[in-house]
Amino acid sequence: MPFQPNHPRERLILALDVPTVEEAEAVVAATRGAVGVYKIGHQLVFSGGLALAERLIRSGEKVFLDLKLLDIDNTVAHGVQAVAALGPAFLTLHAYPKAMRAAVAAKAASGGSLSLLAVTVLTSMDDADLTEAGYAGAVRGLVAIRAAQARAAGIDGLVCSPEEVAPIRAIVGPDMMLVTPGVRPAGSAAGDQKRVMTPGDAIRAGADLLVVGRPILAAADRRVAAEAIVTEIANAAR
């Protein structure tokens, strides 16, 4: 089913990339109602973030568990089943065909409304990084292959660079969610991201959801920073 937000803020995912649950709770308190989804990744998961995820879900917030699962089929399947029981809105896994098929089957067996998002190529990587890792070819070629494999596996959406949204949309059609990290408001530092775009440009390119972390977390007023991005999303979506 294509993603249909009721408000532009529902298209903004705030990455809670902070070291402690206490800091994450402060970020949530400062931004609640200004963003649509809170993303919890490895750093926070290993510091008590799963308990925080459960509290946020119980309070009505949408949670994105960014765990990037990749393992043997049975382990991926059991991981998906365990995550589905927690009730988050989104879960990531790496876009390897066997892992995706196992995850989709486990989700179907679990029921619920969990959306599986497959990560094509990390936005911190470029062609040189792929070569160093032993891959032949360029980022765009690998992203295209994995997008087609994700569609065939029945994955709900893809995580990809905003630079690759338009070509991926041509491959997967209108019904898969495209979620883009590597989003930086104009004037923000790219940090360790190598394939970036502004929020407005990412929406105009066809992205459904945007992941933003440091530009909000490092802002003097996190709510104002989030609201400015939501305004840019709204303007671009018109």
TrEMBL record:
Enzyme Commission number(s) of this protein: 4.1.1.23
Pathway: Pyrimidine metabolism; UMP biosynthesis via de novo pathway; UMP from orotate: step 2/2
Orotidine 5'-phosphate decarboxylase domain span: 11-229
Molecular function as annotated in GO: orotidine-5'-phosphate decarboxylase activity
InterPro entries assigned to the protein according to its UniProt record, in alphabetical order: Aldolase_TIM, OMPdecase, OMPdecase_AS, OMPdecase_bac, OMPdeCOase_dom, RibuloseP-bd_barrel
Source organism, top-level taxon: Bacteria
Classification via PROSITE patterns: OMPDECASE
GO terms, biological process: 'de novo' pyrimidine nucleobase biosynthetic process; 'de novo' UMP biosynthetic process
KW Electron transport (keyword) present: no
SMART domains named in the record: OMPdecase (SM00934)
Top-level EC class as recorded in UniProt: lyase
GO cellular component, as recorded: cytosol
Active site: 66, 68, 71
Keyword Transmembrane helix: no
Enzymatic reactions: orotidine 5'-phosphate + H(+) = UMP + CO2
Entry keyword set: Decarboxylase, Lyase, Pyrimidine biosynthesis
Gene3D superfamilies: Aldolase class I
List of residues binding substrate: 17, 39, 66-75, 123, 184, 193, 213-214
HAMAP family: OMPdecase_type1_B (MF_01200_B)
Protein family membership: Belongs to the OMP decarboxylase family. Type 1 subfamily.
Quaternary structure and interacting proteins, as annotated: Homodimer.
Reported function: Catalyzes the decarboxylation of orotidine 5'-monophosphate (OMP) to uridine 5'-monophosphate (UMP).
Protein name in UniProt: Orotidine 5'-phosphate decarboxylase
Name of the gene this protein is made from: pyrF
